[in-house]
Design goal:
Number of helices: 21
Biased composition (Basic and acidic residues): 252-271
Bound molecules: zinc ion
Distance between the termini: 26 Å
Oligomer: single chain
Region (Disordered): 247-284
Strand content: 5-15%
Radius of gyration: 32 Å
Number of strands: 10
Structural class: alpha/beta
Shape: elongated
Number of domains: 3
Largest sheet: 6 strands, parallel
Length: 493
């Protein structure tokens, strides 16, 4: 494999050179994972939390992103012991819903990025490769234990808009920071994710806040049912209050004379500490005049009124809901996918599989100058990294470790804005990791990682797709190392 140090110096030539490496890596792959950076959100016109935090009024409030994403429980009754560590949900609910409400509204109003349509084409190509190799195995050897088909594609992202999840179904998608569309009980009374109506938008006022205005008919924000003791007590109180409230039932308009019997007796009020039940309609308010001849039946619909509080509350305990956004974390199921893929790549191939994989890429057998062992084909893995972001350094480091885990059968294609950091493929402790992975000392990530420079993720994916689709035009020349070198490394005269 051509070493990265040999990359052409001219930017346009270098871009094309690495695009061809990338397009070939995708073409040959049997497993793919795609990482999508938050950067795609701002490219599509959505509000990024990082940008929002540094703009007024949130920059003057002084809360940190950790406080906005805190998973600590909503605990106003404990008081604030250390204000710098308290979640904004507890300290300042209007600011909490204003901040995330802005992000939520921009996500809900935004059209899906067309980039996903191109990603689907890459994924489907890799899945077809995988399926063909799996079928070849089945034809070759029907006696031994059948290998599991397993997953061949995975998408993981620091985006919180859930568009990948919605558009890439049924492909496995992991959201490393959670989803802005989902809500959790602020008190953690249960782990159920709760949704808002998709038409709903937060009414963020010009000051950047969502004020607590309860517009539920018959209740006010200071109503006792909004007060809260504990999850269980909350449910008990809510049910108790519900019992004392008028229930929807037919209102029978009767003659005032008969209605007088329903008035509470004087002694009743002393026995019960709670307010006496109100009659659905006070007979005293009946218009004077002759009683109607027929009975008129009406229905009160208190419970059917829409709940339209601007600060959403938990369905179960009525504590405030928090947005399901967490500190970035790579989930276990993705790590399992990588481990499983790495094991599959090390499996010896059947002759039918060798023939099939060789046919996919005509370089494996035509280059006779290389030792035979190195020309033997194997299944391949590709990691497509869309965007490079120093804020998610840990994710990029994890991706490099993934390439090492594939032991020469995995490649990383990074689409990023031109920068020295984006072109550098290393991390602290790489040597000890190399030893742990039992990799040869000569193993260099530079031979397996390619940075395709582009001004935006969108443009980078489009460029790569064009190169991928035109592959038949350039692959023969590309696979001929002499021709390749003549084109990209012309001898200086
Ligand atoms: Zn709850």
């Amino acid at each position: 494999m051509q070493k990265k140090a040999d990359a052409p110096q001219d930017p346009a030539m270098r871009r094309e050179y690495f695009q061809k490496f990338g397009a070939s890596a995708i073409n040959d792959a049997h497993f793919i994972s795609i990482y999508i950076d938050e950067q795609l959100a701002s490219e599509c016109g959505m509000i990024s939390p990082t940008q929002l935090l540094s703009s007024p009024p949130y920059n003057t409030l002084g809360y940190t992103i950790q406080q906005y994403t805190s998973t600590a429980q909503y605990t106003p009754e404990l008081g604030i012991t250390d204000a710098t560590k308290q979640p904004v949900l507890t300290l300042n609910r209007p600011a909490f819903y204003g901040f995330w409400g802005n992000v939520f509204n921009s996500v809900m109003d935004n059209k899906p990025a067309e980039t996903y349509q191109l990603l689907i084409q890459f994924i489907e190509h890799v899945q077809a490769n995988n399926e063909a190799v799996y079928k070849a195995w089945m034809q070759e050897d029907q006696n031994t234990k059948q290998p599991k088909a397993g997953l061949s594609s995975f998408v993981f992202t620091t985006l919180t808009d859930s568009q990948a999840k919605l558009l890439l179904k049924p492909i496995e998608v992991a959201e490393l920071q959670g989803s802005i569309r989902k809500f959790l009980c602020g008190r953690g009374c249960c782990a159920d994710l709760q949704d808002l109506n998709s038409e709903y938008r937060f009414p963020v006022n010009p000051r950047g806040f969502v004020e607590s205005v309860a517009t539920r008919v018959g209740q006010d924000i200071v109503d006792p049912s909004y007060g809260f003791k504990s999850p269980l007590q909350g449910i008990i109180d809510r049910e108790t209050i519900a019992l004392t409230k008028p229930k929807p039932k037919p209102v029978i308009v009767e003659k005032p004379k008969e209605a007088k019997k329903e008035k509470p007796k004087e002694g009743d009020a002393e026995k019960k500490p709670k307010k006496p039940k109100k009659a659905p309609l006070d007979p005293a308010l009946y218009p004077a005049g002759p009683a109607p001849e027929k009975l008129i039946i009406k229905t009160l619909q208190l419970s059917a009124q829409p709940v339209t509080e601007t600060q959403p509350v938990c369905t179960f305990c009525q504590a405030p809901l928090r947005f399901n956004i967490q500190p970035c974390k790579i989930p276990t199921n993705y790590k399992q996918f990588i481990t499983q893929t790495s094991k599959t790549l090390q499996l010896p191939l059947q002759p039918a599989q060798v023939t099939l994989i060789s046919a996919q890429h005509n370089n494996y057998q035509t280059n006779k100058s290389q030792p035979v062992a190195k020309t033997l084909p194997s299944q391949k893995f590709v990691l497509l990294e869309l965007g490079y972001n120093t804020a998610f350094k840990k994710v990029h480091e994890e991706n490099l470790k993934t390439v090492m885990q594939m032991k020469g059968n995995g490649f990383l294609v990074r689409i990023a804005k031109p920068s020295d950091e984006a072109r550098t493929f290393t991390f602290d402790g790489i040597d000890s990791y190399k030893t742990n992975m039992q990799l040869d000392a000569s193993f260099s990530l530079d031979n397996y990682c390619y940075c395709v420079e582009a001004d935006s993720i969108r443009q980078g994916v489009i460029d790569l797709m064009e190169m991928f689709k035109d592959r038949y035009l350039w692959i023969a020349e590309w696979d001929d190392l002499k021709k390749r070198n003549d084109k990209y490394f012309p001898k200086k005269k």
